Amino acid sequence: MHTITVIVPAHNEEEGLPATLESLARQTVRPDRILVVDDASTDRTGEVAASHGVTVLRPPHNLGSKARAQNYALPHCTTDLVLAVDADTVLAPDYIETVVPVFRDPAVSVAAGTVRTRHTRTLWERGRSTEYLFGFHWHRPIQARANSPMVCSGCCSVFRRDDLMAFGGFPERTIVEDMDYTWSQQIAGRRAVYVPDAVALAADPEDLTYLRKQVWRWMAGFCQNVRLHLGRLILHKPLLALWVLLALLEILTAPVWWATPLVIASTTDEPPALAFLWWAGAELLLTTPPLFYAAHRRKLPVGHVLLNIPCVYATKAVNLVYAWKALIVELLLVPLHLSRGLTVYEKGRADTPTPRTLPGRGDAPPRAVCADQGRQGVDCPNSPSSAIRRLRAASN
After folding, report:
1. Which of 101, 97, 195 is CA-nearest to residue 153?
2. How far apart are CA 154 and CA 181, in angstroms?
3. 346 — pLDDT class (breaks 50, 70, 90)
4. Does residue 136 register a pLDDT over 60?
5. What pLDDT is recorded for position 385?
6. DSSP characters for 74-129?
7. How far is Cα 328 from Cα 44, in angstroms, rounded to an integer?
């Protein structure tokens, strides 16, 4: 029988936090403990959390990233499983009940379910909704069958606590801790598992300003992990390396695919409108089958799903811009020591304008943070990850 603690990192989450905590209270398998890390919020986040009867942890200063906030709570976890939930994510009532059984396999280190959008009000939310439906009902099942998922989503992942402690906690060396940990565990011979029947609803950016921030963080984090892990992936987890290389190839070739109608019109006698129709038909042929399946699988109105397809091209355009920026910055300029890469953790939603700097990599790290925090093997005595290492040593 597994026990489970939920960690909810929260920085100025007064508005979204109640729905998250209410979804945890409605779980068919109740968590043993819920920890909300009120990370230097300037709103009523702490009071809202306390009113729901959960344990509220308050670091002495802003920790600077989601991973560090989670690591602050990790020494307070005594259960064998840890569920990390974003403060704007709502879990289906059976989420814990559905995910926990996969940990009967002692090789499983981390697992997560399907992510869907909570709202589809704006162009950007509708586009992201289509991306999620496609990704979680096409790419993710294929990766799962190959036992090589690209990422266990950080908004709703369950971790085996012993593995997490042995690793040193949630990784702080990249801007996306979920992908970093998913790849690291698979390289080490552990399993990451996708659980399609477990559903989490995430609040996605409502406008372009915050979509840009979120996509830049995701793309930069992906490339940081490529830089950090690709060589070992090729040696120890070749199928996962294949998905990574295919993702890089897709980024590199996307401009060519998008320019195909212009190329056809300029190099043949086809009218531009007809060239575009051929291209659009090919796009729909590739896109709609997984979306039909997703609509059937999630009992969604097919018409609504299809109506959102045009919106996805707006989000794809943003993805492409920041994917190329990430390639240039993280895979070219950083190795040449011409850039530090992305070091500031910014949420993809409205917040107080306080930048959260990734420790050890920014120009102005938060107080009590060691300048070498991002480097493996460096002990920074005031950091949450160092506290985890001390706790692990004491338990041994």
Report:
1. 195
2. 10
3. confident
4. yes
5. 57
6. GGG--SSEEEEE-TTEEE-TTHHHHHGGGGGSTTEEEEEEEEEES---SHHHHHHH
7. 40
Contact (Cβ atoms closer than 8 angstroms) between residue 103 and residue 7? no
Reduced to 3 states (helix: H, G, I; strand: E, B; else coil), residue 378 is: coil
**E-assigned strand segments in 161-230:** 191-202
**What per-residue string of b and e applies to 175-185 under the rule 16 or more CB within 10 Å gives b?**
bbbbbbbbbbb
Cβ neighbours of residue 57 closer than 8 Å, sequence gap 6 or more = 35, 36, 37, 38, 72, 73, 76
Tokens coding 63: 């920790």
pLDDT digits (tens, 9 = 90+) for 158-187: 999 999 999 999 999 999 999 999 999 999
Q: Which letter, b or e, does each residue of 235-251 get, where b requires 16 or more Cβ atoms within 10 Å of its Cβ?
A: eebeebbebbeeebeeb
The count of residues in the chain is 396
Q: Please name the amino acid found at residue 208.
A: L
Burial of 44 per CB tally in 10 Å (0-12, 13-18, 19+): middle
Query: Measured between alpha carbons, how far is 215 from 320 in angstroms, rounded to an integer?
Result: 9
